[in-house]
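Appendix B. Chain record.
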Amino acid sequence: MTAKITLDQIATIAFLEEDSGGRVLVSGDTLHIRMGTFEPNGKATVDIVDPSFANPEEHGSVYGIVLFDDGTHGDNQPGDGIYETDYGVGHELVVEGALLIGNFWDPAGNRARATAPTRITAQPFPTSVQLYEPTIISASQSALHLRWSRNSDPDFAAYQIMRSTFLAVSLSSTLVAEIRDQDVTSFTDADLQPNTKYYYRVYVFDRNGNSTGSNIVSGTTPENLPPKPVVLSQPTQDSLALVLTWSPNTDLDFEHYRLYRSTTSPVDTTFAPIAVINNATTTQFRDFSAQPNITYFYRIFVFDKWGLSAGSNEVQGTFRRQ
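Structure tokens predicted for this chain:
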């Protein structure tokens, strides 16, 4: 009598499922995947494939996720032919309505494929950056310099720097700057109040509008110092006016120059100035109102944004008709 031998020629996948429940997955989530074959000692993998792209491998799909039947990695019962894994969602998975495709090879080498009835969407939140303690630019500048680590996510869109005078810094705080260059990792926040504590947080945005905030840091601006005075030169004249020139003020908190004139020395600053000049780079004024043969005394004051001022040296000049 001859024994009949039946060769194993078929592998089967009885079910393939995942537990997202239709929710949008984000980075840090765990996706539990189960494949029922009821045939132990095989090999099981799954692919999460976004079918909307011609080449899904370049657009956030993930291939070759290994499932286990040995009681590890989220498998509930070793050797029962149900292969499982707890897949940690990371930034590599960016899909919408993706297919979960299962692959199974039984011990004889037969292969089976199946597609889960559900779809997967994953829009991971951006990777946060590390924000370092602010530094003071100089004792005379009411500004703080910020630095942070570079974000390297492929779907980076922008950094947003948020500021508050309270510890709780959020997206509803003051937007200081939006930076769209991923390689720019520093910013100087100027025009701040002197001797004030500020709190900062940098948010990373991706192209889908998702955001992740950094740690919160604080810095205190220095006390406001008076502006640097300018040097007023001796007046010259042209055919119509006395011409006054002075050195420029380069303070970041410059507000304006006030030019005072008097017929006596020292210059009386209780009256209105003869000119208020708002541009720091303007360093000349022609006094058309100077009367001939009268000696005038001049002094120019620099004012900062906070109301402090510093006066120049005093000069005198007399307009002579030509």
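Further analysis of this model is presented in Appendix C.
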